[in-house]
Amino acid sequence: MTRERYHHGDLRGALLDGAETLVRERGADGWSLREASARIGVSASAAYHHFRSRETLVQALSTRVLARLGERLRRAVAREPEEGQRRLVALGRSYVRWAVTDPAVARLAFT
């Protein structure tokens, strides 16, 4: 288990990163806010300054993951010079590659 240490700066972002790593390792339900805090080397009480609960952390992580997915899909469509069906196929392929490559995070995004 690699521990990602938090250094002064964006604690909220570091908690999201730690939670995302835990999702990949254990799935969407296999970890706690306390474990996400420990993963980055901060106390659970520090995490509660940014997230009221594990559920609010999961919601924020889902929002971040979906934003990245949206950007990925926009880039896939933009690379396709022809409009219509070819862009739709490019979008679909990009989505499937993402879901197959990162299945635990993909499941989290839609829970």
From TrEMBL:
Has UniProt tagged this entry with the keyword DNA-binding? Answer: yes
Could you tell me which residues form the DNA-binding region? 32-51
Gene Ontology MF terms? DNA-binding transcription factor activity; transcription cis-regulatory region binding
Does the entry feature the keyword DNA-binding, yes or no? yes
Q: Which keywords accompany this UniProt record?
A: DNA-binding
Q: Which SUPFAM superfamilies match?
A: Homeodomain-like (SSF46689)
- Please state every residue range assigned to the domain named HTH tetR-type: 9-69
The name of this protein is TetR/AcrR family transcriptional regulator
Organism field: Streptomyces boncukensis
